[in-house]
User: Fold this.
Amino acid sequence: MPTPDRYRLTFTHGRSDVDAPKDQVVVERTAGLGPGGNPVYSDPTGILRAEISPRGEVRMLASGGHQSPQPPVVEPLP
Assistant:
């Protein structure tokens, strides 16, 4: 199965119920690899970075100090 070029990341804020606020961000594959050897994906600003494995496991990568990104739900895009 080919590695997707883009993913949609959905972040849920606060509560875990259906009505919890959500943000969605599309990330595209970069030339880099993360600490686990999987492709790194980034949003257009380069602030949001994630290593995503072929099984859809996400490791958020801090792009600056004082960040503690939470893992999102990941969905491959065509």
User: Anything to note?
Assistant: DSSP finds no helices and six strands in the chain. The two ends are 13 Å apart (CA to CA).
